UniProtKB/TrEMBL annotation:
Residues 198-297 form the Fe2OG dioxygenase domain. This is gibberellin 2beta-dioxygenase. GO terms for molecular function: gibberellin 2-beta-dioxygenase activity; metal ion binding. Belongs to the iron/ascorbate-dependent oxidoreductase family. GA2OX subfamily. One of its GO terms (biological process) is gibberellin metabolic process. Its EC number is 1.14.11.13. The lineage of its organism: Eukaryota, Viridiplantae, Streptophyta, Embryophyta, Tracheophyta.
Length: 342
């Protein structure tokens, strides 16, 4: 039984149109987009050693300043000595690979066969109208408070591994959020009170080999609708982000976790910290795995800028999510924060 989602079957029209376009060679938009994906320089993100925080004094303060500076200038950075062991990261990836190897039928009936809640398994892009809007990937998107219940037959320690990973990464996210608030002059309890296990998410991603890597994204260009995202990726590579108005490829680092600022932190910081566009490109021959943790508040949490004059009006996280979903459904892509400018 095939484990890959039925991309070709469901999106057959898109592939037929792409084949027709390349034959007639008159689709300039596609050619430009392909050029954009292929010609990308690889670079290393700012690398921050979090063990320096334990030293305190000027060394600890300099580490905090580097975190804030990277969040302002890049919106992305990577951390080492982050408190999550290499053994746990490797175990998480191993369990992830095993569950994605299940048949598509089992994964798409995750509540029946894998003991995940219905709707946890996702693949492709339901609102796509062309190959350029298709995400060539599959994922299990799991609320943290449902992680402990996810123990499918034959995956005895999957839930305990996910729970261990989520607990340590949650602690790291809170620490980083409080540092970023502190560097804006706020000793805030906001994150401790509003970003709880019941509101945060874990997402296990797989990007299968793709026959048209120059035309199809693994994940469409987007920003994250949270405060912070913490990502562990394998060594295949494929993550790209915008820096100084051009796309750059992130060089994988086996010991590091990647941190990126989400839309909510950009709004809360009044545009000091940057939520930047990023995407995942596909690979013709090799599959790619990653695990992402999304640091989110409850839907009724009100987001307002921490200083005046505010760039954005007040909005609840639920209102923001609803607007994003409406835009994606109607326009094919997310608008995000520009919808909430004062």
């Amino acid at each position: 039984m095939d484990s890959d989602p039925p991309f070709h079957k469901v999106y057959k029209t898109f592939f037929d149109n792409a084949s027709s376009s390349s034959t007639t060679n008159n689709n300039k938009d596609t050619e430009e987009a392909m050029k954009d994906v292929v010609i990308v320089e690889e670079c290393e993100l700012p690398l921050i050693d979090l063990s320096r925080l334990e030293l305190g004094g000027s060394e600890g303060e300099e580490c905090k300043s580097e975190i804030a500076r990277a969040s302002q200038e890049w919106g992305f950075f990577q951390v080492v000595n982050h408190g999550i062991s290499i053994e746990l990261l490797q175990k998480m990836k191993s369990k992830q690979e095993k569950i994605f190897k299940q048949s598509f039928d089992k994964k798409s009936q995750e509540h029946k066969y894998l003991n995940f809640s219905a709707g946890t398994y996702r693949w492709g892009s339901p609102t796509a109208t062309s190959l350029r809007q298709l995400s060539w990937s599959e994922a299990f998107h799991i609320p943290l408070n449902k992680v402990s219940a996810s123990s499918a037959t034959g995956f005895d320690d999957l839930s305990s591994t996910m729970e261990q990973f989520a607990t340590t990464v949650s602690s790291l996210a809170l620490k980083l959020a409080e540092i970023l608030a502190e560097k804006l002059g706020h000793k805030s309890t906001f994150f401790h009170e509003n970003c709880l296990p019941s509101t945060c998410y874990l997402r296990m991603n797989r990007y299968p080999p793709c026959p048209l890597p120059s035309e199809v994204f693994g994940l469409m260009p987007h920003t994250d609708s949270d405060f912070l995202t913490i990502l562990h990726q394998d060594q295949v590579g494929g993550l790209q982000l915008v820096k100084d108005d051009r796309w750059i490829a992130v060089k994988p680092n086996p010991e590091a976790l990647i941190i990126n600022i989400g839309d909510l932190f950009q709004a809360w910081s009044n545009n000091v910290y940057k939520s930047v566009q990023h995407r995942v490109v596909t690979n013709l021959q090799v599959e790619r795995f990653s695990t992402a943790y999304f640091f989110c508040p409850s839907y009724d949490t009100v987001i307002e800028s921490c200083c005046e004059p505010s760039v954005y009006r007040k909005f609840s996280f639920g209102e923001y999510r609803q607007q994003v979903q409406e835009d994606v459904k109607q326009l094919g892509s997310k608008i995000g924060l520009p919808r909430f400018l004062v």
